[in-house]
Amino acid sequence: MTPLVRPPRLGPGARVAVVAPSGPVREERLAAGLDILRAWELDPVVAPHVLDRHPDFPYLAGTDADRAADFQAAWCDPDVSAVLCARGGYGAQRMVELLDWDALRAAGPKVLVGFSDITALHEACASRLGLVTLHGPMASAVDFIKNTRAQDHLRATLFEPESVRTIASPGSAFVPGRARGVTLGGCLSMLASELGTPGARSGARGGLLLIEDVGEEAYRIDRILTQLLRSGWLDGVAGIALGSWERCGPYELLRTVLVDRLGGLGVPVVEEFGFGHGEGALTIPFGVGAELDAEAGTLTLDVPALA
User: What is the Cα 30 distance to its own chain's centre?
Assistant: First the structure.
């Protein structure tokens, strides 16, 4: 696993496109998020179908074709420097194969920000574009709108990425040690659902894996990790950082599952690292070489997340 291409950082006046590749977006939250982006001296533009609702499936923000068209147009617009996802939910997988990846590659490197269901796009951008992406707060999400830590860390990553080369967490190590590798990861259940799909990476060998999830009971987390172990996808992983596990049941039970499934890999593992669906989530770049120090609770990037 080698480091990926870093897109350029943003500056005042940069145009950023807001898209909805997954679930439906609440208009009032979108408006609040746009106000924050404008306060950062960015120029946000909203894709045409962001506020759509699928006629048959209420969990989708418009049809697959329209969501894909919005993403394609935003990425290929030469005036757009970053594509920010409005929210997660479900649906990104349904439109990945509708995108013209040759055209996206030709458009050049741009910043992608999102998490949760957007894991499907992080993986696709890594494997098909060879591009660093940002696992971070989304434009209409409550955490972005209301949490200062989430806002400040994303803003620093976008504008002054050298100021956040060391990402620190109050979490603790349940397997101590240091590890070097290239960052990857996202929502655990989404990573498992990528197995066997077109363009999916073969595994996490040589990587620093950062995973989290939401609304999955302990036995389901057990099942997903067991699938990744049995498939060999975790073979050769260098280290693991665990983020938030909102609504995944009692943490004591979940922690026992995580230790049981991951502790035998013989690599450093740190828990409660502060990214994902939890409050005040940190922004994590995927595709950057880094060192994970489980005991110190730090992820130190070899280079800033953006060029």
Answer: 19
Q: Which two tokens stand for residue 43?
A: 């120029």
CA distances (Å), 95 to each of 22, 67, 124, 190, 192, in order? 9, 7, 11, 14, 18
Sheet containing 133-135, strands listed edge to edge, beginning at the edge strand earlier in sequence: 43-46, 15-19, 80-85, 111-114, 133-135, 284-286
130 torsion bin: left (phi>0), alpha (psi -120 to 50), beta (else): left
User: What is the tens place of the pLDDT at every residue in 66-91?
Assistant: 999 999 999 999 999 999 999 999 99
Q: What single-letter amino acid sits at 56?
A: D
> Is 40 a residue whose pLDDT tops 90?
yes
Active-site amino acid positions:
116, 212, 277
**Are 40 and 157 in contact, with CB atoms under 8 Å apart?**
no
Tens digits of residue pLDDT in 88-127 = 999 999 999 999 999 999 999 999 999 999 999 999 999 9
Once rounded to an integer, what is the mean pLDDT over residues 210-214? 97
Asked whether 279 and 162 are in contact (CB, 8 A), the reply is no
Q: Mean per-residue pLDDT for 145-158? A: 96
Mean pLDDT of 227-234: 97
Distance CA 49, CA 38 (A): 21
Residue written as tokens 């982006």? Answer: 37
